[in-house]
Batch of 2 targets.
Target 1
Amino acid sequence: MPIRKICCIGAGYVGGPTCSVIAFKCPEIQVTVVDISQSRINAWNSDELPIYEPGLIEIVSKVRNKNLFFTTEADSAIESADLIFISVNTPTKTFGVGKGRAPDLKYVESAARKIAEVASAPKIVVEKSTVPVKAAESITKILKHLAPHIPFQVLSNPEFLAEGTAISDLLTPDRVLIGGEESEAGCKAIEELAKVYEHWVPREKLITMNTWSSELSKLAANAFLAQRISSINAVSAVCEVTGANVEEVAHAIGRDSRIGSKFLKASVGFGGSCFQKDVLNLVYISEALNLPEVAEYWHQVILMNDYQRRRFVDKIVERLFQTVTGKRIAIMGFSYKKNTGDTRESSSIYICKHLLDEEAKVVIYDPKVDPEQIKMDLTEPSIMNDKERYDRLVTIASDPYSAVENAHAMVVCTEWDEFVTLDYQKIFEVMQKPAFIFDGRLILNHTKLLEIGFQVEVIGKVPKLT
Ligand SMILES: NC(=O)c1ccc[n+]([C@@H]2O[C@H](COP(=O)([O-])OP(=O)(O)OC[C@H]3O[C@@H](n4cnc5c(N)ncnc54)[C@H](O)[C@@H]3O)[C@@H](O)[C@H]2O)c1
């Protein structure tokens, strides 16, 4: 029976955009996205969507309230759906066994329990959240125990979209992965989900496999991507002390077709809700499987990322004459990458934390991040458990020029395009002298900045006037 109704549990960065594209490409399928957060659902039903993604609002406005619905009424959406995506968050555990490494699967479990409680007819349940290998087995067990009379098929269909390019990633994916049970019923369920994607994804891009391979592929793919960033960042440290230029090195190694040129940009470190969490997830699984060498290998990717962030802040303090206490430092960009307002695990948070530990006065500008979000991130207990200190040391600027006024240093943390085209002559004039620029993303014209008179510090190279 073809899929006519889809329910998605979780209206976040994955559930929202994914279901908007499915509804857009499959007009005969009714798609309902449910969430426990009333405010998130309200935002999805308004013109101020809860997340920023280029192209998202255009698609949502074409299909919302036609065949795409956002609601907190989960029961009826689950009950009437043929296929249910679980797209809830799977953050790293902050307490108990596996604290700091294992993913917290409580949201996945509660979604599975809800499905079992509400469903009265067979359904295909699709795990879209990133989960440890064998999580589908746990979902299957919950469903079988709580609703033994209903035949469920549980599939793994990990999402590979990247924030900032989510819509184009969803419209033209490199591949769509579907894992399922190796049985007749499993193959049939895989086929049903494949037919949904076939509305716009060429068949040869649909890869099917067993559930465990599919679950592990997602973790492994993110670990490989994070590893590339940590690898080039490790090289950047060597460049800075030898006079080599990390951009030239990246260009040279990326021209090798076995290596490829993407994901070779040195930076202040990777952020986002996925890379660190998923690598740690792989570390935890490897430890649990008694594979300590494998765990240690992947853990090094995280340690290198921490080192890169720390190295960058140490350099700021060192260049500013060994002290930033009381100095005004402009932080340009707070989201973890451009074209998103998402700040989860953003390197900016860690850079601000270290500067604030030194009692610097931090002025933050970001074109998309809500000031309230910045306050929440920086007053987290692990960052700065003191709202009075926050009010004394942190200012949010509404435009880049007011951020840099009287600043001793401007620190580029996010690669927003608008930072490239700012009037740096004007900026130089309003900053304290010597005026320092720290480019943590290698996006600025360093020669021009040196010509203006800035002291320029860049990851992975020593900029010089030629
Ligand atoms: N963000 C990304 O770029 C990305 C990319 C690929 C995969 N993933 C994975 O997808 C999953 C979701 O990520 P996200 O970034 O969309 O998370 P998110 O935090 O943005 O969204 C998750 C949503 O699920 C809701 N939720 C939690 N439990 C619920 C329940 N029982 N019923 C209804 N709603 C519930 C939350 O309120 C939240 O709105 C994670 O496993 C993540 O690792 C994320």
Target 2
Amino acid sequence: MRRACPLAVWATVYRVRCPYCHLDDDRVIDSRATDDGTAIRRRRVCNPCGKRFTTYERVEGEETLRVMKKDGRTQPFDRRKMLSGMQVACEKRPVSTEALEAAVNRIHQLLLAEGDREVLSTRIGALVMSELHGLDQVAYVRFASVYRQFKDLDEFMHELRHVIGGGKPGAPDASMDRS
Ligand SMILES: [Zn+2]
């Protein structure tokens, strides 16, 4: 039995053949983008022989990572869109832009490290929720309550703006009217 490891999420995906014993049973012990951001460097350890080796996964360009929406259409992964959605959820909350950018980086790097070219939009939503959960409870609840209904970042952001703005789509001031 393999021991549980904090990096198990990364460790279980995509094994490659060990250059020493040629078996393909390794685990990833470290995974990060190179400084210039053009590759993912993975430090691996071979389970059968215990030797360590490194693999690099090159990012071919902005289009490398695509997001598959509910209806099956795909679009390029857009960091700015994700950041913008999180900023809307964190409006008037004590969460810095730096903290949100760091969260976006973590999500982006995790997705790149997983190696899938296409990522379900629902997966991205779940990752955003998980990050917001650690940053700010109010932002998390805002995001989660709206996101669970929509499961699509475009629709979601449209609706979230209305929710946080205090009105409903098509009736912007109705809920603010106290008379
Ligand atoms: Zn080996």
